[in-house]
Design a protein that fits this description.
This is Histone-lysine N-methyltransferase ASHR2-like. There is one protein chain. The protein is α+β, with helices and mostly antiparallel strands. It is about 35% helix and about 15% strand. The protein has eleven helices and 15 strands. The chain has helices at about 45-50, 80-85, 90-100, 110-125, 130-135, 145-155, 170-180, 260-270, 275-280, 295-320, 330-335; strands spanning about 5-10, 15-20, 30-35, 40, 65, 75, 180-185, 195-200, 210, 215-220, 235-240, 245-250, 345-350, 360-365, 370. Strands 1-2-12-9 form a four-stranded mixed sheet, with no helix packed on it. The chain has a three-stranded antiparallel sheet with strand order 3-11-10, with no helix packed on it. A three-stranded antiparallel sheet has the order 4-8-7. The longest helix has 24 residues, at about 295-320.
């Protein structure tokens, strides 16, 4: 059975559309492979030159790299440049990126939004059916989307003939779809520095996954490892067994974030408050009153480290006591969160081989493999 047949879209009470299991699912099973309808760089030109503008792989050598003579973006090979020129790197997009390079005072967040709009309107020119897929994604327009549209619409409009300038309302609607549906493709993991997003992609099937702070699935990407024709695909694998009819959820960010940070990000970026089982418990913790706006960064960092140490201590106590503490995610933290320094990734078993569950867990951030002696648990 193909991965896409293992989940189906369903209306879920108080959560809108989501994906549910059509059969009992085992740990490590791949439930979705998805390709993006569009990709766009999230980095400044000086940093984006480390990655191919088409497939977004890390550039290995300058000898094989190809630079677009018009807009100066870099491709990893002549083949990648040729492939891009046939669709994603049209004359319109090339002209638009050149124009964007002449706007150095544009804040980074606006530059990233401008790159998305350029990619989206380019899609409307080269592939109307895929553009319609983008328009059909969920995404309620907020005041922030309208503000961003007002700021960027003059730049975007200047790239169109006067007779075909898109309406401001469409620009705002597209920004809302991007904000609520984009997945980040991260830079390679390095233990001693913070990672950034190298590119964002809109994945139409994966956009149906709802969030849970204790997810039962996680997504993997292999941008630098896979073949060029599918290296930007994402793969969603089960973390543990679930029964038929259960909703399959991802976490929209690392699971180690504290309650107040999670709630703020979900409200700001996705427009909802989370009331999952974990959040219901943590909302009542007295030590969650840590969102004082007057705290300096050093205090916040120290407090987060203290929280993480407390979480680990409570997790160990919970494991010793058979799961009796008021800490439902203790087992999840110990079993499914990568313990590599500065990683905070989620572990999922490798796909089963001939229906035999794998005992090897893979981190979806750093890629480390870990032998799991416990075995699959639901």
């Amino acid at each position: 059975m193909s991965a896409e047949c293992m989940v189906t879209v369903a209306e879920i009470e108080n959560r809108g559309r989501g994906l549910v299991a059509t059969q009992p699912l085992k740990a490590g099973q791949i439930v979705l492979r998805d390709s993006p309808v569009l990709l766009y760089s999230s980095l400044l030109p000086s940093s984006s030159s480390y990655y191919c503008h088409n497939c977004h792989k890390t550039l290995q050598s300058s000898s094989s790299s190809q630079v677009c003579p018009s807009c100066s973006v870099v491709f990893c090979s002549p083949d990648c440049l040729t492939a891009a020129a046939s669709c994603s790197h049209s004359p319109y997009l090339c002209q638009a990126l050149s124009r964007l390079r002449n706007c150095p005072d544009l804040p980074l967040d606006r530059q990233v939004q401008a790159r998305f709009l350029i990619a989206a309107y380019n899609l409307s020119l080269v592939n109307r059916s895929e553009f319609q897929v983008l328009l059909n994604l969920q995404g309620a327009v907020t005041d922030d989307d309208i503000t961003a549209a007002n700021s960027l619409h003059p730049l975007i409009s200047s790239l169109f003939p006067p007779s075909s300038i898109p309406p401001l309302e469409l620009t705002a609607a597209l920004l809302a779809k991007d904000r609520q549906n984009a997945f980040g493709l991260m830079e390679p993991f390095v233990e001693d520095r913070q990672r950034s997003v190298r590119a964002y992609g809109i994945y139409p099937k994966a956009s149906f996954f709802n969030h849970d702070c204790l997810p039962n699935a996680c997504r993997f990407d292999y941008v630098d490892a896979a073949a060029e024709n599918n290296n930007s695909d994402i793969i969603v694998r089960m973390i543990h067994d679930v029964p038929q009819g259960r909703e399959i959820c991802l976490s929209y960010f690392p699971v180690n974030l504290d309650y107040s940070t999670r709630q703020k990000r979900l409200l700001d970026d996705y427009g909802f408050n989370c009331d999952c089982d974990r959040c219901k418990v943590e909302a009542n913790w007295s030590d969650n009153d840590n969102d004082n706006d007057n705290d300096v960064d050093d205090d916040e960092n120290e407090e987060q480290l203290m929280e993480e140490e407390q979480d680990e201590e409570m997790a160990a106590a919970d494991a010793e006591n058979g799961g009796d503490t008021d800490f439902p995610h203790a087992y999840f933290f110990m079993r499914y969160m990568c313990d590599r320094n500065n990683c905070w990734g989620t572990l999922a078993p490798l796909p089963p081989s001939n229906a035999t569950p794998s005992t090897v867990m893979e981190c979806n951030v750093c890629g480390n493999l870990k032998n799991d002696a416990i075995g699959s648990q639901g």
